Amino acid sequence: MFFNKLTHSGYPGYQGLIPGLALALAITSAPALAHDPVFGIGPHVLFKQGVEFAADIESRQAGDNKEQALVLQTTYGITGDWAAGINLPYDFKQTENDSSSGNGDVSVFTKYRFWRKDSLGLQESGAVFIKVITDTAADNKTPALGKGTTDTILGLTYGYEGRKWYRWASARYRFNGTNDTSGIRVDRGDMIRIDFVGGIRPTPTGYLEPDTVWLLELNGEFGQRAEVGGVALADTGGTAWFLSPGIFWTKRNFAIKAGVQVPIYQNLGGNQQNADYRAKLIFEWHL
């Protein structure tokens, strides 16, 4: 939503006792294990017919450009391995010369966990992710909030979630559409995102106790330049890396996630303003 028009399973016998205990531990500790990163994506999905409500508060600044968003999200567990949901954003944007606010682009998403391996106090899993970002912000009569196209994100993610240590890796490809709302066809340029995340739970806790996991993410972005008639636009595209400390705090079925992205390398095309920071605060409630 922060892109502009251009860049934007009987009783076990003795031999089955250990696997059975491992699976039981994984199940009973599922709420504590069911973590995802703050800025990257993880393979976590809801249980069958489970519902998650979330509210995200997002903020970023790049020079004179400031952006904030409040995003309401609902996710439903279709099966134990497949979930889908919708994001409803309200955006605020401010530049040196102008400011605007209104409903942002609604997006729908789905995640399917195709692989899961449980062992004693540990769960590994992999998932695929699809998100479609509609072109609905333009209906607000505030064109600065819209991008003029429908975009699609495809992602692949792996997660290692233990009683003490966590790690995730993910890759996402964003297919940005072609904007022609001004009478000029602008191929906005696709983007690749790569995330590597580590986490630690300093003190293992039980299900009824508050639980804290500290996170450190490395987030990379690789944007292609936008083009008009096959000619690349100078002030578009580029590469950026962020180091992002964060925290995940849970108590039973309620969770709070927070993190800050700090730029460590930026090589953007043309005269684009470098990012100063990005921040996110997320409240989650599982039913």
* Secondary-structure element order, N to C: HHEEEEEEEEEEEEEEEEE
* Count of the separate structural domains: 1
Count the beta strands: 17
CATH topology: Porin
Show unreliable segments.
1-33
Measured between the Cα atoms of the first and last residue, the distance is: 27 Å
Based on the coordinates given, report the CATH architecture: Beta Barrel
What share of residues are in beta strands? over 45%
CATH C-level class is: Mainly Beta
The largest beta-sheet arranges its strands as 1-2-3-5-6-7-8-11-12-15-16-17
| Helix and strand composition category | mainly beta
Q: Count of DSSP helices?
A: 2
The rough form would be described as globular
Rg of Cα set = 20 Å
- Oligomeric state: single chain
The CATH superfamily is: monomeric porin ompg
The main pleated sheet reads as: 12 strands, antiparallel, barrel
Q: Helical content, roughly?
A: under 10%
